[in-house]
Amino acid sequence: MSGGMTSTLAPDRAPAVGFGGHARALMGLAGPLILSNLAGFAIGITDIVLMGWYDVVGLAGMVLAHSLFFIVFLTGSGFAIAVMPLVATAAIEGREGDVRRVTRMGLWLSLGYCALAIPVLLLAEPFFLLIGQDPAVAAEAGLYLRIGGWALLPALVIAVMRSFLSALERTSVLLWVTVAMAVLNAIWAYALIFGAWGLPRMGIAGAGWAALLTNLAGAVALLAYGVWRLPHYRLLQRLWRPDWPILLRVARIGWPIGGQLLAEVGLFASSAAMVGWIGPVQLAAHGIAMQLASLAFMVHLGLSQAATVRTGQAVGRSDRVGMRQGAVAAVTLSGAFALLTSALFLLWPRDLIGLFVRPDDPARAEVIAVGAMLLAFAALFQLFDGAQIVAMGLLRGIQDTAIPLAIAALSYWGIGLTAAYVLGFVADLAEIGVWLGLVIGLVAASVLLLLRFAALSRLPEGRV
Predict the structure, then answer these.
(1) Is the pTM above the cut of 0.85?
(2) Burial of 376 by CB count in 10 Å (0-12 exposed, 13-18 middle, 19+ buried)?
(3) What's the longest Cα–Cα distance across the chain?
(4) I need a labelling partner for 448 at 20 to 30 A (CA). Which of 9, 388, 403, 416 fits?
C-alpha cells in the first residue's frame, strides 16, 4: 500500500462468496449512497434549472461558478475521502480508538484547507476575467461565489462525516439528510432567486445564500447524528487535541486523492473555460450536457464509494479473494448502468436539454441544438467515466493513492486537456473538439487505473 497504513493480505485464504453474493452486498451498501449522491446532485441541478429559467447569462455564470467551487471543494475533500478506507479497516479490526482519531484528524485537515481556499472563492471574479470569460458572465459567477463560497466549510464537514458513516455502513442517515438538504435548497433557492413569498428578488446571489444555508444545515445534522447515535466513538470529545501521527497518516493518503480529484475536475472545469471562449450559448449548452452526464455519474460514484468500503474491509479481514471478486462485481454493475444511460442520451437528447431552458428564452433553440450534439459525446464517455471512478474507489480501499495520482495527472492533463485544446482550437472543431478531448482523457484513465488494480490484486503475498 502506498501512502498510509500497511496491511498484509494472506494469499486467497478466505472462502469465496461468488459474483452474485458480492454484487448483492455491494448494492446493499451502494444503494443508499447512490440515492444520497442523487439527492446531493439535485441541490446543484436545482440551481442550474432555476437559473436557466431566470436568464441564460445567469445560467452561464452559475456553470462557471460551480466549476471553480467544485475544483476547490473536491481538491480539499481528499482528506475527507481518506477517512473512509482507514475507518473501514480500523472498524473491521475492532480498533475503535483509531476510528475516532482518524475522523477527528480528517476534520482538522479539512478545516485547515478551508482557511486557505475560501479567499480564492471570494476573489474569483478577476480570475474569470483573466482567463478570458465574458465580463457579464464573470460578474454573475463572482457574485455567487462571494456568498456561496463560504459553503465550502460546512460542505467539507459533511464530506468527512459522510466517509465516517459510510465506512461504518450507516448509509441510511446520509440518504435522509441529503434528501432534506435538497428540499431545503429548492425552497430557499426558488424564494431568493425569484423573490417569492415577500422575499427580495436576488437572482444568482439568492442561489448563493441557499447553498450556504443548506450546507450549514446538513453539517449540523450529521455531526449531531454522529454524537447522538454513535456515542461510543466520542467523536467530538477533545476535538481541539492534535494527534500528529494520525494526522500525518490521513494527510499522506488524502493529499494524493485531492490531487487525483483536482486532475479530473480540472479537466472538466478547463473544458468549461474553453467552451466559454466560444460563447455564452455554447457554455450554457455545455453546462446542461455536463449536468446530465454528472447525474449518471452519481450512480458510478456510489458504486465507487461502496467499493472503497468493501475493499477496506477485505484488507482488514486479509481476504484477497473477496477483494478481487468485489472488484469484478463493481466494474460489471458500473458498465451495465453506463450502457443504459448512453442509450437515453442518444435517444432523447433534445428533450433532455430542453428541460433546462425557459420556453420563451430567445436562445432556447440554439442551446438545445448545441446541447443535443454534446450529449452524443456524453454517451460515448459514460462507460469509461464509470470505470475510472470505480477503479479509483478500489485503489483507495487498499490505500494506494500516490501512483493513481500520477496516472490521473497524465490521463486528464497530459492527454485529455491537451487533446481538448488541440481538437477544439487548433483543429477548429470548437466545442465538439473539446468534448472529444474529454473522451480521450477518460479512456486513458480508465484503462491505466484498472490495470493498476489488477496488478496489485494479483501480488502473491505481503504488502499490496
Answers:
(1) no
(2) middle
(3) 68
(4) 9
CB atoms within 10 A of CB 417: 23
Dihedral (Cα; 29, 33, 34, 40), 10-degree rounding = 180
Closest by CA to 193, choosing from 205, 211, 181, is 205
Which cell is 8 given? 498484509
Given a cut of 70, whether residue 246 has pLDDT beyond it is: yes
Q: What is the pLDDT of residues 263-284, one digit of tens each?
A: 887 788 788 888 888 888 888 8
> What's the domain count of the chain?
1
* Residue recorded with cell 443504459: 340
pLDDT (tens digit per residue) in 152-171: 999 999 999 998 998 888 88
Domain containing residue 65: 26-463
Is residue 7 in some structural domain? no
Name the amino acid, one letter, at 207. Answer: A
Inside any domain, residue 21:
no
Show the CA angle centred on residue 413, arms to residues 407 and 417, nearest 5°.
140
**How far, in Å, are 125, 188, 420, 437 from residue 205 at the CA level?**
14, 12, 32, 33
Which DSSP state fits 411?
I
Give CA torsion, residues 391, 397, 399, 401, to 10 deg: 20
Query: Does 12 score more than 50 pLDDT?
Result: no
Instruction: Tell me what the mean pLDDT of segment 23-32 comes to.
Output: 83
Note the pLDDT tens digit of each residue in 45-79.
788 788 878 877 888 888 788 878 888 888 888 89
Q: Give the number of other Cβ atoms within 10 Å of residue 257's Cβ.
A: 27
Q: Is residue 2 in a domain?
A: no
Over the stretch 376-398, which tens digit does the pLDDT of each residue have?
888 888 889 999 999 999 998 88
Cell digits of residue 368 = 438545445
Around 208, how many Cα atoms within 13 Å sit in the side-chain half-sphere? Answer: 23
Half-sphere exposure of 422 (CA within 13 A, CB side): 9
